[in-house]
Amino acid sequence: MSDAAVKTEQAAAETPALSGRWTICAMLFVATTINYMDRQVLSILKPALSGGLLHLQPFFPGWPAVERSIHLTDEAYGNVLAAFQLAYGVGVVFAGRLVDRIGLRRGYPLVTGLWSLAAMAHALVNSIPGFAVARAALGLGESGNFPAAIKATAEWFQPRERALATGIFNSGAGVGAILAPLAVPWVALHFGWRASFLITGLFSMLWIAWWSFRYRTPRQAAGKAAGTAATPKPAPSVAWWRLLGYRQAWGFILGKFLTDPVWWFFLFWLPQYFSSRFRLDLLHIGLPLVTVYVCSTIGSVFGGWLPRGYMRLGMPLKRARVAAMLTCACLVVPVVTAGGLQSEWLAIGVLSLAAAAHQGWSANIFTTASDMFPASHVGTVVSFGQVAAAIGGAIFQKLAGHILELTHSYVPLFIYSGSAYLIALVLLRTLSPGLRQAVPGE
């Protein structure tokens, strides 16, 4: 490691903690929860949208008792998901640079408003191509959430706290995935599937108002509160494409490319998996999904704390980070058996462990971006990883739909899911031994 890198890392470690940082973390958590609620609606409705008609239980007298579906086959669903992920990949190219350029106070509400409008637009759709267009618009908007959230974490938290903070806000992914199967089936059965796409719009508007009123940069906050430290001096400006010349960036990119598609698979295909394998309908699919995503939420927070646990055993920070990632990668491996399980609750147990381990992994791999790059470049580096994740996810969703249409078997998909994390960790360690810090511009 260069002397400049050592000084940068030491300065970051010695910077006093900023007051108000956990309020920022709470806002990131709520935004991520809303993000994943919007993202999950279609996957929960997928079994119902595969048929011709949805029979309702009207909440009000005179409300229609039947709603027409759109005959969404597995292959068509895979294509719709691929449209979302490709648009997500395109959007994230600009999202990271957007929040790096105009700042979080303006940039974060902008992307949140875009994805909320796109989510509600699904209610106007009458065809599968229309779903693909609406889903692509949703991907463009949602692409900004994680670059913005990781940038905020890098600015507000010391290196030793970042994985925990990331784990906490990233647990919003699980909470959103929990709330969606609790709310969406009820709304769909009483008001129709179109109404299900409208329920999160109000929450998004409230969050935008909260963020715009409450958020300030660490420097602004330090000017208002005594006893808080100013943030470190920004790193030199570097053209975004030059960051691709660093091996550390490619370690992060490949890790996201290999492992994020597994989480997308869990989000988008588990409702269909439980419906087709265990014959669960819209009324009964909620409990298995809620169980899996509750465990994923616990795994996110625990995985974020895990490096601190290893540090208490005497490991330095970055070695503890790698040890936490290895632990999570090993815990995903049993999911390779999920494609052949006959017991519903055994499948739920294996998938819950894998989802929890993924979220623990995610909290730590996101934090490696801020371990290896200065805060002023983190949004861009995270965007690179999110682009790679979206491309990998689009490929995976397309293949998943094709494989299921032809074979009706989840076995190859779960085999990949169980092995991806160990491969990703080997590549990260090879490209960036010890999570060595890059110093762009020097």
Radius of gyration: 21 Å
Write down the oligomeric state: single chain
Spell out the CATH superfamily: MFS general substrate transporter like domains
Look up the CATH topology.
Growth Hormone, Chain: A
Computed structural class: mainly alpha
Mean pLDDT: 86
Unreliable stretches:
1-14, 226-232
Strand content: under 5%
Helix content: over 70%
Instruction: Return the domain count.
Output: 1
> Any idea what the CATH architecture is?
Up-down Bundle
Total count of helical runs of at least 4 residues: 16
What is the CATH C-level name? Mainly Alpha
Tell how many strands the DSSP assignment holds: 2
The description of the largest β-sheet is: 2 strands, antiparallel
Give the strand order, joined by hyphens, for the main sheet: 1-2
Indicate the overall shape: globular
SSE topology string: HHEEHHHHHHHHHHHHHH
C-alpha termini separation: 13 Å
What can you tell me about this protein's structure?
With 442 residues, the protein is mainly alpha-helical. It has a single domain (19-220, 242-435), classed as MFS general substrate transporter like domains (Growth Hormone, Chain: A). The protein contains 16 helices and 2 strands. The chain has helices at 3-14, 21-49, 74-102, 104-121, 128-142, 145-156, 159-191, 193-196, 201-214, 218-224, 247-278, 286-312, 317-332, 344-372, 375-407, 411-431, and strands at 53-55, 66-68. Helix 2 runs antiparallel to helix 9 (201-214). It starts with a helix and ends in an 11-residue tail after the last helix. 53% of the residues are buried. Residues 1-14 and 226-232 have low confidence and may be disordered.
